[in-house]
Design goal:
Blueprint: H1 3-17, E1 22-38, E2 41-59, E3 62-69, H2 73-89
Antiparallel strand pairs: 1-2, 2-3
Helix pairs in contact: 1-2
């Protein structure tokens, strides 16, 4: 199992334990580039690495979306536990009707 699959599996298992009805998990890992030009010449350039786990969580008709930067199993667990408690405080969305099977 790859590191990516491991993080996704951990997120899904924790969400199920927290009674989250639906979850979408996506890991984005790569480099981002930014170049600034002045007078048609490169003035400044930056390169940085991104490692983000994006989660969409739904409990009934309550939904939230969270990002976990530089995910670890501990960060994933703590964030999902906090998010599941936060979901209970949110109003129900009249736009969300669940995911199709």
């Amino acid at each position: 199992m790859s590191e990516n699959e491991g993080f996704l599996k951990v997120a899904i298992e924790i969400a199920q334990k927290e009674n989250i009805d639906e979850i979408i998990a996506q890991r984005i890992k790569g480099k981002t580039y930014q170049i600034r030009f002045s007078n048609s010449l490169i003035d400044n350039s930056k390169i940085w690495s991104n490692d983000i786990l994006e989660l969409f969580l739904a409990k009934g008709k309550r939904t939230t979306q969270i990002n976990i930067e530089a995910p670890t199993p501990t960060k994933i667990r703590n964030t999902i536990i906090k998010a599941s408690k936060f979901l209970l405080k949110l109003p129900e969305s009249f736009l969300y009707n669940g995911m199709e099977s």
